[in-house]
Write a structure and sequence with these properties.
alpha/beta; 6-stranded parallel sheet; 36% helix; globular; 19 strands; 447 residues
Length: 447
């Protein structure tokens, strides 16, 4: 399929990392890749030509940390601190979840993300085999894997069933969906090594997981230093080592590791992250809602740490709106440090696009550029809150809402178009979602 967008305003990234609006432009797509960007209409035959007058085309957004099926738990336990929220509100419901619930909740999340311009996400939740099929069917990209959990410090790695399941997931998805792609590019589902956290695993299993990650040359996702108590208790367990220092000791921290939250990381931790190339995934809404605190994003950026952006799950957010996360990420450090120059618009857009793609091991997406994957979102600029459009990059960060997205494309295929889902049966998705929520939490929950 060859598609040409004409009369568009394109959000492009310069060689020095600044963003600018390339107006009255054409963007041509050949198969799964961007084939042309320029002012003049390219020669040749196109299967579809779409006039994008009044529209802004941006790279598809990358949600670098989340738990998709938690759309089933949206709003549950609001107002509770993290541990009470988990123990009293979340865990009792999650204990009742079945694969069909994960499918329903994940599909509902995919619909929300596509409608908001997200083309790639990281997903950490139960029943990943079932969730992965949802992404494949919908045509959206995801990094996911079986989550490592282990509570017995004496257990040998070879006896840990979860560790075996982590490897089985890697085997099941290794190379899957890469047919017809450039060498090194991967399919819709990329298998991660998923480590829940320091406090829900053991040193034996973490070290074994690190070896597995190197064996499969894959990326690693986990939670790190989300709360002060988690951070301090790790130091008590491991002779003064912070979670970041402990993970480095276990051999699992390198440029293919991306860590959610990092609220309580120290200056020394940031130096380790810079040294190893690990990514900090900023989750501003979730961290504020749960009262966890504020990640030292300005310091991380100053030190040269790769910083990405994520929503976390709907139970602690309560949505999957990456524009909201961009807005908050741009404002928080300015307010905290009384310095409006901290965390620039360019840095925030990077967090939501190229930095997230880098963290997830997908350097072929996250930017509008010839040769990159055709993952993009289209925004209608003819909205009252988007005029005048004098500074497009700033407009994207401070004014655009998820509801301004009118089209989302992944690998050159339109998945969402003006309220219509082209690869998802929305009516069935609602029926399944309603049934799961009702079974898990009772009737009378829907308007």
């Amino acid at each position: 399929m060859k598609t040409l967008f004409t009369n568009a305003c394109l959000l492009l990234r310069s060689v020095v990392g600044s963003y600018y609006a390339f107006k009255d432009a054409c963007l041509g797509i050949d198969g799964k890749y961007i084939a042309y960007i320029g002012k003049d209409k390219p020669e040749g035959l196109w299967d579809a030509v779409k006039d994008m007058s009044g529209k802004l085309i941006i790279p598809g957004l990358v949600n670098a940390h989340g738990h998709a099926a938690m759309t089933l738990l949206r709003g549950v336990g609001s107002g509770l601190p993290l541990q009470r929220w988990l123990n009293e509100a979340i865990f009792p419901i999650e204990a009742k979840m079945k694969p069909e619930d994960i499918v329903a909740g994940t599909r509902w999340a995919v619909m929300e993300m596509l409608a908001g311009g997200t083309t790639l996400c990281s997903d950490m939740y139960d029943f990943p085999w079932d969730a992965a099929k949802v992404y494949e069917e919908a045509g959206m990209k995801v990094n996911t894997g079986r989550i490592l959990l282990c509570f017995d410090p004496e257990m040998k790695a070879e006896d840990c069933e979860r560790l075996s399941e982590c490897e089985q997931f890697m085997k099941d998805f290794e190379g899957r969906g890469s047919e017809g792609l450039k060498p090194g590019d991967c399919g819709l589902v990329k298998a991660d090594v998923a480590l829940h956290s320091e406090y829900l695993t053991t040193e034996n299993t973490v070290r074994a997981l690190a070896e597995m990650a190197k064996r499969y040359d894959c990326v690693v996702q986990l939670h790190v230093s989300e709360t002060k108590s988690e951070h301090i208790e790790c130091m008590e367990r491991h002779k003064g080592l912070t979670p970041v220092a402990y993970l480095k000791e276990c051999g699992i921290l390198d440029k293919k590791t991306y860590m959610a939250h990092c609220v309580w990381v120290t200056d020394e931790d940031l130096e380790i992250m810079k040294e190893t190339g690990a990514t900090l995934v900023h989750n501003p809404t979730s961290n504020m809602k749960l009262g966890s605190g504020f990640a030292p994003v300005a310091k991380a950026l100053e030190k040269g740490v790769n910083v990405a952006l994520g929503t976390d799950g709907c139970a602690s957010n309560n949505n999957l709106n990456m524009f909201e996360e961009m807005h908050l990420a741009a404002l928080l450090q300015k307010g905290l440090h009384s310095d409006p120059t901290l965390v620039t618009v360019d840095q925030v857009i990077d967090m939501a696009t190229v930095n997230g793609a880098k963290a997830l091991g997908r350097p072929d997406t996250g930017e509008l550029k010839e040769g990159m994957r055709a993952d993009l979102a289209v925004i209608d600029l003819k909205r009252p809150h988007l005029e005048p459009a004098v500074d497009i990059p700033a407009l994207l960060v401070y004014s655009v809402q998820a509801s301004d997205v009118v089209m989302t494309m992944v690998d050159g295929k339109i998945l969402y178009d003006n309220g219509a889902y082209l690869t998802i049966d929305a009516e069935k998705a609602w029926t399944d979602y309603e049934a799961s929520v009702t079974r898990l939490m009772g009737s009378g929950l829907f308007v």
